[in-house]
Amino acid sequence: MYDLVVEGRIVGLERIFEAQIGIEDGVIKKIKKQGLEGENKITVKNGLIFPGFIDPHVHLREDSSHKWDYKEDFETGSKAAAHGGVTTVIDMPNNFLPSVTEERILEKIKLAKKSAVDVLFHGGVVKEYFNEIKKMAGHVVGYKVYLSETTGGLTIDKNDLEVAVSKLSETNLPSVFHTDETRQTLEELIGISNKLKIHVAHVSRSSSIDTLNTKVTYEVTPHHIMFDENNLKKNKFLTVNPTIGTKSDRLAILNALKAGKVFFLATDHAPHTIEDKENGAMGVPGLDIYGNIVSWLIGSLRLDPTYVAKLTSYNAAKLFNLKGRGEIKEGFIANISILKFEPEKVDSTNHFTKCGWSPYDGMTFPGKLIYTIYKDQVFLN
Ligand SMILES: [Zn+2]
Fold first, then answer.
1. Which of 126, 276, 311, 322 is the most exposed place for a label (fewest CB within 10 A)?
2. Residue 152 backbone dihedrals phi, psi, to 5 degrees
3. What is the pLDDT of residue 151?
4. Mean pLDDT (the chain, rounded)
5. Confidence band of 288 (pLDDT split at 50, 70, 90)
6. How many CB atoms lie within 10 A of CB 303?
7. 3-state secondary structure the chain
8. How many Å lie between the centroid of ligand 1 and the Cα of residue 269?
């Protein structure tokens, strides 16, 4: 008798198959065609069972200064993740107190204990703390390198890149680059990708997609998938970094998705209050609507669900070496996201993010997240 049995169409890496999943003590113990008994049972109809989504790029805002907790904190941000089917997030370092040292990372790990899902961390890379890169390695899953301006001012000078790369390569962890998306910068990164595992954050331009091709991995965000400059007039809070592109930029992203060239989806969840947005803050929330976006990728863009499972879970687990995640497999952590194809209109008054609004408010998506299973807990959405 398992604690929980989930049955229905499971999205694997190669195919979709009908089976039962037996869960005990937060672990996937058995996957079988039929015959599993559970104290509780979830039967999925008109839906798909995915490995728990992994969002490798979020800004949950909280640090030991608590100066930005009014925008979001680990509790509200992680609940927004669970609401969207995201069972693992990786938090970015550009806080009020940037996480650029081992001490700061350890403080954040402590603060994140109250989270509803797993919160992992990227270490920040700045010149004055290059000697902390190695010290952070045991506590982070990757590093974030800012080569152009962003919220929090963690930019490093290109002249210091060589030293940074040599320090980073000693850790064997991947580095995520925020770039200006010029051809020159992207080609420089491709040039050093033999020394360091490089991943490019939030690619937003057609030209970047051409330059990167599949030479290094990159991510795209829901807002660059769903919006282009035609939406900017009506939706004045779509101020983000990198900016929303033209229609042809958006089509290039959609084509890269259709061609299977995008490595993963990353929300770049960057909550700001309405007041901060009115004062020009850059970024939009994205965790609560993650399941809606997944339904759009399958229901509207017609991506194969097996590729979507890679985009939303497997590939991030692979890049950041997250053990027991990224697949529905015996012995893996029972992180499971269940999507139903039943239209949903976004209403941010039901969202868990603290910021209190969504750029997707009023939009209708072809499906929604109905259950998020995180280890031994079930969130009913
Ligand atoms: Zn970001």
1. 276
2. 105, -15
3. 63
4. 97
5. very high
6. 19
7. CEEEEEEEEEECCCCEEEEEEEEECCEEEEEECCCCCEEEEEECCCEEEEECEEEEEECCCCCCCCCCCCCCCHHHHHHHHHHCCEEEEEECCCCCCCCCCHHHHHHHHHHHHHCCCEEEEEEECCHHHHHHHHHHCCCCCEEEEECCCCCCCCECCHHHHHHHHHHHHCCCCCEEEECCCCHHHHHHHHHHCCCCCEEECCCCCHHHHHHHCCCCEEEECHHHHHCCHHHCCCCCCCCCCCCCCCHHHHHHHHHHHHCCCCCEECCCECCCCHHHHHCCCCCCCCCCCHHHHHHHHHHCCCCCHHHHHHHHHHHHHHHCCCCCCCCCCCCCECEEEEEECCCEECCHHHCCCCCCCCCCCCCEECCEEEEEEECCEEEEC
8. 7
Ligand 1 is an ion; its neighbours by CB within 5 Å are 268
Residue with tokens 């669900």: 305
Once rounded to an integer, what is the mean pLDDT over residues 289-315?
98
36-83 pLDDT tens trace: 999 999 999 999 999 999 999 999 999 999 999 999 999 999 999 999
> How close is the Cα of 129 to the center of ligand 1, in Å?
21
Give the model confidence (pLDDT) of 227-260 as tens digits.
999 999 999 999 999 999 999 999 999 999 999 9
- As a whole number of angstroms, the longest Cα–Cα distance in the chain is 62
Say how many Å lie between the CA of residue 150 and the centre of ligand 1: 8
Question: What separation in Å is there between the alpha carbon of 175 and the centre of ligand 1?
Answer: 14
Taking the mean position of all CA atoms in its chain, how far away is CA 300? Answer: 21
Domains delineated in the chain: 2-49+331-380 (2.30.40.10), 53-319 (3.20.20.140)
Q: Provide the pLDDT for residue 150.
A: 64
Q: Which two tokens stand for residue 95?
A: 């806080």
For residue 106, the tally of other CB atoms under 10 A from its CB is 15
114 CA → ligand 1 middle, Å: 22
CA–CA distance, 294 with 53 (Å, rounded to integer)? 10
